[in-house]
């Protein structure tokens, strides 16, 4: 089937179709993630206050209260992360299981010609392997992207409140980083799809050979089969390696950009401190907030990489769902009640056009003369 590049409408359609039944869990997951973002913004403020108060030799009781508040917020944040992980995993399994059901039901309705061209192992990989790659797309993609965007906005607002020069510098850094990363969002879609296809071919080959193990041994084809299997493994390895290298281009670029952001933050903080505009605690705050800018940017990078994997899975599952080569039903006539005569004469049928199963098939069954509906006379022949 001709490959078509998926548009945003396809992603939205697939995403909404399988998440709509679980909208309650989606909303709960969004609330948990947004609460976690708020906790992340508060914790550096507590540490900044602790550092400045310690430098000013504040009372020990105030330092203890600050440390206790930081500890409590840390525990709450860990609990929110665990809850978000559970909810996202549960949501991902619920959505992908529904998709597996749809794919299985659709494949059962397809003609035998379709199944004759594909091994059972390949179909298992198409229904299970491709859908498994979509788990993160359903459970975290939009929410993580939204959460990362909100965290970036919150951090930039906090930086502007501290010093507008720091806010401007890191805003420019975020814009440049985002443009660079988004320019590479489609870097590995083709390679990821080839990886999925190689995986399907390998598992299809393995399933067929295991099913025919007795015949392979009886014909002394074990060595030949192993050589063929090694070829499939090598193709899968090479496809996976190409996909991994293509995806790591984004990761390496992101690491370089993130390093520049940390250097920029420390440079601006050092200049402001030497001029007496900020305190030691504020230097920590700026550095911590810069790290918090890097986390959502890195999260966006990971989501883009997962989207590349999902794009290959969505491409293949969408093509499978859109395929329709079922044998059309003929005209429907009401059958009279009671025993009936049944006659087939000159029936031609085949799953493939050039491989007929019946040629001139003839069957005569006179059931009216038999109270138990057994076949009185039947003849079948090939012409």
Give an overview in words:
With 383 residues, the chain is mainly α. It has helices spanning 8-19, 23-55, 60-109, 112-116, 120-132, 135-162, 164-182, 189-211, 213-218, 222-274, 280-322, and strands at 341-349, 358-366. The chain has two domains: 8-187 and 251-322, ABC transporter type 1, transmembrane domain (ABC transporter transmembrane region fold, Up-down Bundle), CATH 1.20.1560; 332-383, no CATH class. The protein has a two-stranded antiparallel ribbon. A hairpin with an 8-residue loop joins β1 (341-349) and β2. The longest helix is centred in the middle third of the chain and has 53 residues, at 222-274. It is elongated and about 105 Å long. The model is unreliable at 368-383 (pLDDT under 50).
Q: What order do the helices and strands come in, and which of them pair?
A:
Blueprint lengths: L7 H12 L3 H33 L4 H50 L2 H5 L3 H13 L2 H28 L1 H19 L6 H23 L1 H6 L3 H53 L5 H43 L18 E9 L8 E9 L17
Antiparallel strand pairs: 1-2
Helix pairs in contact: 2-3, 2-6, 2-11, 3-5, 3-6, 5-8, 5-11, 6-7, 6-11, 7-10, 7-11, 8-10, 8-11, 10-11
Keywords:
383 residues; mainly alpha; ABC transporter transmembrane region fold; 2 domains; 11 helices; 2 strands; elongated
